[in-house]
Amino acid sequence: RKEVEQDPGPFNVPEGATVAFNCTYSNSASQSFFWYRQDCRKEPKLLMSVYSSGNEDGRFTAQLNRASQYISLLIRDSKLSDSATYLCVVNSHNAGNMLTFGGGTRLMVKP
Amino acid sequence: DVKVTQSSRYLVKRTGEKVFLECVQDMDHENMFWYRQDPGLGLRLIYFSYDVKMKEKGDIPEGYSVSREKKERFSLILESASTNQTSMYLCASSPGGTVSGNTIYFGEGSWLTVV
Fold first, then answer.
1. Chain A residues whose beta carbon lies within 8 Å of the beta carbon of residue B3
2. Given Cys at both, which of A4, A37, A73, B69 links A47, Cβ 3.0 to 4.6 Å?
3. B40 vs A42: CB contact, 8 Å cut-off?
């Protein structure tokens, strides 16, 4: 079982739609959680950190469910420019203090 | 502005060749990393270094070695390239201490094809 799992997609949605991705992690001692965005043939870039109480940044909302060991990303009012791959990233301080990356979920927003 | 520079963006090498991938960061970061990324597998850590001349194996070090002679430069070496090393390679750096997803910076990636 992968340590961090994501549905690879692609999720094809029309502009203006709301879309949500989930990511599950296996290490119950995981401490920190992040969503990254990666455009085609580009490096990953931090989209947002995920806090225990949930957090919002404009059209993006991240949630953490420690009991079920998953995090989610909700995108409201999708734009064409949101088309990218979204990577779930987990930091487990008892696992050599390294980041573990999910395989990514691909989003395609269509006009 | 934070900068991690990978000198080669696209390379095509032959099986058995020795390959050097160079990475330079200008942020005076202690930690540097080499990942490879393959479709559906996410980023997998090859090697990392937390100081000059220090190196630690990551999850998939086989077939690779690294060199960190200067703080700003971290090189990935494929001693004898094989076709299963065709991939995108990402270099990253972060400040010393705890590695966090909001303080790690990636280079633009190096696309290596081994034929």
1. none
2. A37
3. no
- Determine contact, residues B48/B55, Cβ cutoff 8 Å: yes
Whole-angstrom distance, CA of residue B115 vs CA of residue B113:
6
The pLDDT tens digits for A23-76 are: 999 988 888 999 999 999 899 999 999 998 999 999 999 999 999 999 999 999
A89: CB partners within 8 A, 6+ apart: A4, A33, A34, A35, A36, A99, A100, A101, A102, B101
Q: List pLDDT tens digits, range B8-57.
A: 899 999 999 999 999 999 999 999 999 999 987 889 999 999 999 999 99
Inter-chain touch B42–A4, beta carbons under 8 Å: yes
End-to-end CA distance of chain A: 37
Q: How many CB pairs under 8 A join A and B?
A: 53
Which residues in chain B have their CB less than 8 angstroms from residue A87's CB?
42-43
Q: Which residue shows structure tokens 């029309």? A: A14
Question: Which of A99, A100, A105, A106 to mutate to test binding with chain B, by most B CBs within 10 Å of its CB?
Answer: A99
CB-CB under 8 Å, A43 with B107? yes
Contact between A1 and A98 under an 8 Å Cβ cutoff? The reply is no
